[in-house]
Amino acid sequence: MTNSPENAPAPPPEAEPVRRRNPFVDLTPLRVSAPFARLWTGEAIAGIGSQMTIVAVGLQIYDLTGSTLAVAGVALFALVPMIVFGLYGGMLADAFDRRLVALIAAIVAWSSTALIALLAWTHVDSVWLLYLLTTVNACAATVINATRTAIFPRLLPRELLPAAAALNGITVGVMVTVGPALAGVLVATVGFDWTYTVDVVLFLAAFLGIASLPKILPEGEVQKPGLESLRYGYDFLKRAPNIRAGFLVDIIAMTFGQPRVLYPAVGALVLGGGAITVGILTAATAVGATVCSLLSGRLGHVRWQGRAIGRSVQFYGLFILAFGVVLLVATLTGVDVAPDIASANIPAIVLASIVLAAAGAADNVSAIFRSTMLQTAVPDNMRGRLQGVFVVVVTGGPRVGDLYVGALTLFAALWFPPLLGGIVVIVAVALIVRFTRSFRDYDSLDPKP
Q1: How much is the average pLDDT of 121-150?
Q2: According to CATH, what is the number of the domain 229-449?
Q3: Fewer CB under 10 Å: which end of the chain, C or N?
Q4: What stretches pass through the bilayer (predicted)?
């Protein structure tokens, strides 16, 4: 099953990585591919609304229950369904028209958001209905992400995929910083009903980006969705050492280098500043990733992308270790802190924010090359399934990391998990790169899975 020329752009010729003197983000993908530009723009606008709803749902559940555990239930309730739909969505993307798969998933996501808004407008205060609808929304978004990422290589030449990944990094950074801020302002001023309604309107931009795509059928041998298709994908992954190594590196980084669950306790007990400190530390990583993407212009000429992934993740581990050192020093100095920002340890908060921003930048570099490797080294008829596995990795990894940090803090001080985790990341990634020669020698001019 293949595309006809009128349905999708023909694969462009291979080209040497382009060397740019300009350090700023390469906007060439937006200029050379109108379909990619519309898809990227729609994702950026709709993503802000999606982040607004995520934050607003958490605020509403806390308002209804007064329980932090109930708020955490949103993620826990959706975790297993997201994993299932990440894998199944990838199979759908490898079996059917990817434009149609993404469009149907977008309709489901939009409908679930509209129902959440309807609940708010009609004053139906049901935590379980919010759990159910946010789970449906998360599953649909997972299918959209797996499908959309598998579409990019059909819209752009191979040498522009790193630039496209950097542009997506900007999108994610803007979503994570602007969306929650808008949600807080809107919930406080106009309420939950209007906040959800704004998301319903913003999500319409996603339809514009998806609906305007050409028909994109998978190329090569196609398997129907099911256990056989999943087995076929698993067999491929067993023969793909570079892709496996990329997944493993990411899992290690997210498991041992994810300190986000520490932030509330850090804001209350170590650095002070309470919720304001939590917001600053949370935003720092996203700001670092966004700035990195804005200055990503020269990443397109990096040829040895396996080494680049290894080094950037090791730097990520180093900065997480530095975050642990900042907390250790703040603890040893014994500075009295309080929940109000005026009584907080401001120098330590600044240092912590800087190292977390640097960690976000390093992680973004890794993400750019891991995404590029998936899109170039994996055959077109396997991209959906491998992107589905990637979604499972990035969804499950941070949650396993939350469990690691939470369990360790039962027996150790708050500074210990990031300090130990940073060391584990540095050493483990060095071993993976050392003993996976094909990953270390991965050549973007001759991409092999």
Answers
A1: 89
A2: 1.20.1250.20
A3: N
A4: 39-62, 68-88, 100-122, 128-148, 160-188, 194-214, 269-295, 315-335, 341-362, 383-401, 407-433
